[in-house]
Amino acid sequence: MSLPFFVYGTLRPGEHNHDRFLRGRTAAEEPARLPGAVLHDGPGFPYAVPGEGEVRGALVTAAPGGYGQLLSVLDDLEEYAGPGHPLNLYDREARDVVRDRDGATVRAWVYFAAPGTALGPRIADGDWLTRTRSGPRSPRP
């Protein structure tokens, strides 16, 4: 299933992992939001979890012919080894995301914190960028 990706933290445009992992690999990046989720701070990067709220981010579409490579790169970065794998840092799930420009609902891959992950404080407005503007940045390898 070739879905776009919903990114909400260090992969968003302007953040430190965006150029490192997405530059040259995308055909489109546009503001979007994920209903039915909340955002938590982590050790230099955020965690989304299902819940009563909304997370702000970007909908990223792979460049033509580059879907498999982008999927592999993002799975590696997010430490996703497969459905329910005990070593997952994140679990990848297909969810409905709302595109800001037209309100359309788009099915996309979302990386949620895997069960048992230690979450930091909730980011009340669901937007990692508002948190990082005033808080410390710790680059994630």
UniProtKB/TrEMBL annotation:
CDD domains: GGCT_like. Residues 5-129 form the Gamma-glutamylcyclotransferase AIG2-like domain. InterPro entries: AIG2-like_dom, GGCT-like, GGCT-like_sf. Pfam families: GGACT (PF06094). Coiled coil: none annotated. This is Gamma-glutamylcyclotransferase. It comes from Streptomyces purpureus.
